Amino acid sequence: MNELRLPAQATSVTLQTALTRTLDAVSAYLHAASISESRILTQVCNDLAIQRNSQADRIAAWIDEAGERPDFGFSREAGFQQIWMSLVSRRFPTFREGLPRECERSDRRLERVLLRLWNDPDTSEVQRRNLGELLREVRDGIDRLEHLRAPGVLAPSMVH
């Protein structure tokens, strides 16, 4: 019998991991905005993409301050997520609630990385404050997305 194995969680995370996850979220938001039929969702996704991009710049600056070179690449997961979002959106045109959920998935991955960095005993107090600010912003975005998934929020009358 085959055993289902989930990918193991990385043993450690770095600011580079946070940068990559932040850029993955930017990618998800921009893609969702480009395929959404809802003006409300498009606006929220564009707003959150701008916010995540600003966060990526801050994280990159912290990496640079630490004497390392930030890598502005996306993960393979980001590409797969875009393909998934496009397929589901095309196959199920009424998939309004699905796009916010997919964007939320990117933010949840980012949230987990930021939490792990925040909880790392080697994280300085200054860095912990910076990470706490990012966490608050990410969680605010998740709250906005959850609100969009409520019944009737992305009703057909609010579509382009």
- Total strand segments: 0
Number of helical runs? Answer: 5
Largest sheet: none
Radius of gyration: 17 Å
At the first level of CATH, the class is Mainly Alpha
At the third CATH level, what is the topology name?
A: Ferritin
What this model shows, in words?
- The chain is mainly α.
- The chain has one domain: Up-down Bundle (Ferritin).
- Helix content is 69%, strand content 0%.
- The chain is built from five helices and no strands.
- It has helices at 15-35, 39-65, 76-91, 98-119, 125-148.
- Helix 1 (15-35) runs antiparallel to helix 2 (39-65) and helix 4 packs antiparallel against helix 5.
- The longest helix has 27 residues, at 39-65.
Keywords:
160 residues; Ferritin; single chain; elongated; mainly alpha; 5 helices
Outline:
69% of the residues lie in helices and 0% in strands. By secondary structure, it is an all-alpha fold.
Topology:
Elements: H1 15-35, H2 39-65, H3 76-91, H4 98-119, H5 125-148
Helix pairs in contact: 1-2, 1-3, 1-4, 2-5, 3-4, 4-5
